[in-house]
Write a structure and sequence with these properties.
Strand content: 15-25%
Protein name: DsrE family protein
Order of helices and strands: EHEHEHHEHE
Number of helices: 5
Structural class: alpha/beta
CATH topology: Hypothetical Protein Ychn, Chain: A
CATH architecture: 3-Layer(aba) Sandwich
Helix content: 25-40%
Amino acid sequence: MKYLISVLTDPTESRSNMAKVAHVILYAMELKKNRHEVLVYFDGGGIKAVENENLRKYIELAVKEGLIYGACGYCASPSHIGGKEKIEKIGIRLIGNEDNHIGIAELVNEGYYPIIV
């Protein structure tokens, strides 16, 4: 199977939210080890995961494992949530831009099953 895990949860709001984001990475790695295709996409408040110190090791591991599809360029723009430079610095590509919020339809059309966290 093919999975797209879209992280909308803002990890800075609570420890529970931080745990949700960490588990997204852990579950994505588990799925990959079991021969599933899996991509993680940071959107909305989820882009704050990239700059969270407690999640850094998970994010860096996910980047290294090739699990990260990208982060929403619209949400990462300074006029919205921000964090564009930090996202690009660790090697996560931005999808869309300040004027263009990209959805998940393209990946669903390619057979990815969306999971929203």
